[in-house]
Design goal:
- By secondary structure, this protein is an alpha+beta fold.
- It is 27% helix and 21% strand.
- It is built from 35 helices and 48 strands.
- It has an 8-stranded mixed β-sheet, with helices on both faces.
- Strand 34, helix 21 and strand 35 form a beta-alpha-beta unit.
Amino acid sequence: MTADELVFFVNGRKVVEKNADPETTLLAYLRRKLGLSGTKLGCGEGGCGACTVMLSKYDRLQNKIVSEAMSALRPAPQGSGGARATTASAMASFVLRAESGVESHFSANACLAPICSLHHVAVTTVEGIGSTKSRLHPVQERIAKSHGSQCGFCTPGIVMSMYTLLRNQPEPTIEDIEDNFQGNLCRCTGYRPILQGFRTFARDGGCCGGKGSSPNCCMNEKKDQTVTLSPSLFNPEDFIPLDPTQEPIFPPELLRLKDIPQKLLRFEGERVTWIQASSLKELLDLKAQHPEAKLVVGNTEIGKFFFDREGIEMKFKNKLFPMIICPAWIPELISVEHGSEGKASSVEKTLLSAVAEHPDHKTEVFRGVLEQLCWFAGKQIKSVACIGGNIITASPISDLNPVFMASGAKLTIVSRGTRRTVQMDHTFFPAYRKTLLGPEEILLSIEIPYSREGEFFSAFKQASRREDDIAKVTCGMRVLFQPGTTQVKELALCYGGMADRTISALKTTRKHLSNSWDEKLLQDVCAGLAEELNLSPDAPGGMVEFRRTLTLSFFFKFYLTVLQKLSKEDSRDECGKLDPTYTSATLPFQKDPPANVQLFQEVPKGQSEEDMVGRPLPHLSAAMQASGEAMYCDDIPRYENELSLRLVTSTQAHAKIKSIDTSEAQKVPGFFCFLSADDIPGSNITGLFNDETVFAKDEVTCVGHIIGAVVADTPEHAQRAAHEVKITYEALPAIITIEDAIKNDSFYGSELKIEKGDLTKGFSEADNIVSGEFHIGGQDHFYLETHCTIAVPKGEAGEMELFVSTQNTMKTQSFVANMLGVPANRILVRVKRMGGGFGGKETRSTVVSTAVALAAYKTGRPVRCMLDRDEDMLITGGRHPFLAKYKVGFMKTGTVVALEVNHFSNAGNTLDLSQSIMERALFHMDNCYQIPNIRGTGRLCKTNLSSNTAFRGFGGPQGMLIAEYWMSEVAVTCGLPAEEVRRKNMYKEGDLTHFNQKLQGFTLPRCWDECLESSQYHARKSEVDKFNKENCWKKRGLCIIPTKFGISFTLPFLNQNDDKAGALIHVYTDGSVLLIHGGTEMGQGLHTKMVQVASRALKIPTSKIYISETSTNTVPNTSPTAASVSTDLNGQAIYEACQTILKRLEPFKTKNPSGSWEDWVTAAYQDAVSLSATGFYKTPNLGYSFETNSGNPFHYFTYGVACSEVEIDCLTGDHKNLRTDIVMDVGSSLNPAIDIGQVEGAFVQGLGLFTLEELHYSPEGSLHTRGPSTYKIPAFGSIPTEFSVSLLRDCPNKKAIYASKAIGEPPLFLAASIFFAIKDAVRAARAQHTDYNMKELFRLDSPATPEKIRNACVDRFTTLCVTGVPENCKPWSLRV
């Protein structure tokens, strides 16, 4: 059968595709076929928003332009008793629709959208709304000028989300803006500058004229006689106003098509056929002919989970669905209505309308559905997902299915010739991912009933993170009372996350019919649920006690909510009065609009306008990043004969390789070759310590160990072929956890140790001794741009050019040269910019670049590889998990006199940088405290996990968190305020650290005092105590934490060779300057700061200076861009090069003092003076000996203090970050905007480390958490509601360029203030329940996830859910 032509529009231009393949996503088509690289691939599963585009289409049903590609809803029969959504294969969509006659649009994930779903749709990408070549759109301009773009990889997606919102709502509220970004992630900025820039679009977010009470009002400048502290990093008055009339129009050709009848469309791909049905009859006939066909509307499961569950399954589970039917055009399947109005609208909008129009007692269920929809997903998913798809995919953790089941919703199911209505009850889901529908049937509609008098309904969900997260447990609960009584007539308690399907607790509910709604019922129901909803200790998903406890906690919340509503309705108090301290437990989650302050010291009066040092200059690439013009590695246009590489990795943690069979892989179209260790012309041995291989030869030592690679004509063919490579193994014993390694004496090297004082004497003199263990989990870098390399062979003398996303050009060059057996001078490595790094691209990028270089060598053709997110997370390792065994001795006054800490880190299967990371942990085991008698030891655990590596902070955060953990226990044991104990033990100016380095310029006490004052710490502490007395089930905590972070590389095994940098300056005859240095740009603003440095040194405007890239043929043998020192090192090298140029120009300036820069340059050129210079700098006086505990490991220290307040929900473990105040010593800031951005970004990354991000490994060593659906980094809503950052004034640092300080890593640890505020709140909760024999000191490991918080808040519900673990039980996941 002949395939149809696919017709759609991109940025106003018509696209006609004659060979549309259903497996091609819009993202792949935009980037490869149309060359539009602004839309980025961040995760491939719709979880990060980097690929966001805007879609618009003409809706025939409403006779207007709407936002509704890829969805389906239909008009239901009228006069029914509730709200009815109709669904194609269960598909009623959450489409945002405008009022009649108003143009509407919606955001969508291009990585999930099959191009076949876009027939007659208009697509708008970031390139289509503005550019630096013509004019930036106001959205692009504002994110750039408000410093909301750092690495820039997420920026186009965020821009398009905001743009779509403004196309629908030109004057949104601040709340609309916040909600709009639920589907977007950013790893760099900490979100504050993005929200602050975009709130200028809000009708309630503009200037208050000095009349407002907001703390971030621009009139709140703090001044004294000598210094001005400025609170403004940008001036909103400089922004281009938004003019909605100037937006591109909907393509007229698509409007003209509205009167042409739609016909069935068929698209034939290599493996998949896509049929777009145009009528319900066609759809039912097709389903009868092809009962195995998948119906796809939003592809949020198939494309993620192929735009339905099958899309994630095609990608991640390698499943194939040969026939796909799309019902998105069928009128009967694209409406929602309530009552008899027949008004077309979205589910959300229709239910909101119903709630507004009907009495409360009729809309209990609707409000429950709306509560779940509020946190269901990001806008991009909501725009295209559909309720029916959510039902039919039968997810055991569906947010909505328990709600529908509990409400008694009715489903209309049809096939060719049949129609039936069923109630969604406990029989609807007979097994995992199964429903009652037959193969030929589709779900036509769902009817959600009105609630009745005396009927109450609630819905609850608990996840790791509130925004766009999958539930751990979700539920719908309904009770109907006998008329005029509080006796239960009907009770429905339905749960997701407690079995392999949505279930109803029938045993428990049936027992309590006719019972009164009182304390006895509460106790009996909770006991019944604890018994009925049991989970085995090895249940998939783990968190067994937490999930069981949540079922009881949710019912308790429901019980209280109903009690509260009953008491309002009936003043006779037949059901008992609600304890006022319990009231807050019934309140739904609410977050106040954000407020923020950034304070920095303005430049001195009289500083030249051209001198940008100290000014908040926006990131030099921000505008290009916002317009999609900034080039990242994978954005480089494809070469004509380019090939794609896919790695083949081990599925075993430790095993011998018995055989590798590539016969099936060779049958995949486009297959070129398979590479293994036998193909390497040079050495297969690689790694910093020659303990790694390019490809595993005979043995694999972790899941994800690279065994080989497949090369093919496209990334898709390479992926398919890689899946077909069959490897047989002989399993060997594997060591997964730190405890396993200790038990088996599996370590790298010998014990590291720092010791000072007399430990025995110290402990003998102590009044108290506390000992314990503390575990800190690992962390994935989750840079938005995964590892990427393009290798281009030059065809002569072994030359090769590599474009790599790496922080370490030198090691990339040397490892490739070693593998190919050629001198390093034949290998050119180039880095334009990275989409984030955070240490993850310091050494681990080489595992990709060496493999790609080999492929280019073998094939003689350019080869490209960009890792998928799941590959990247599996292969490249992350932050080291730590286990600490501590013992601390202290006096009754809180003074610490002795400390011993044994540190163990999970290094993984190679050494990499683990030794240096442990050394830094030992150097920071004191944090900021003077401890006279101290011993710290460190062991590197050799395990069968992917090698862990550098990550922002480099062991420092782990060492300091352990210090603050035992310090908090000292305070509790002494019964003293924690802030007093911390201050009492703090170092003073001139003190020696435990590694005998003298503290000079010790500004920490200033930071501490200023933070106490600005945060109003003591007043708020009283308020927290008051809140905790008045609220039983919500508790608040407040904590202030200092940090002292040493600045330099800690690499003694390289003889400190990394503390150096080179620079190269070319001055051209027109006066323009090309600046090259050894550092790489990954969003930290290094290039911007270096231009500022050169501008001041040369006394020329920044506009005359340009940095193109970092490359090994311009500045050789460079240090990796790491350890926060790149500004110090490269800035000083640039300064030296500038001095050389100035010295050469001096005679010409003397001859012509009134001349311009260009005049002097021209004169020098004509006089044959070199206008090119190099600069070099090495940090002086570094060198520490562990043997003698002497010498300086650090050049200086960066200091800071943070005070944070949180609120926890004791019943669910949820927490809100209410407020954070930070005071940071950054010396004399080179660029306050960049420095504050680094403070906020690092803090939020630390917030993820200490409260949110959790890597789950199976007992066999396989990583469960391989993408944003399962691994949660902080989102827009995770940041503190009030977020203030102040840069300490008048604190120049004479040891770095222009008196500045390093800032990239030091602020990250300050997020520990959130962790300890949570612990403070948990302590308050535990103190309230004294009848459970709880100890005052309790263990709370990091991260403080909802699971750990809830389990620590011991109460009558947790005690009912204690789950015994049999000795031979294999849990779902291990703490590694």
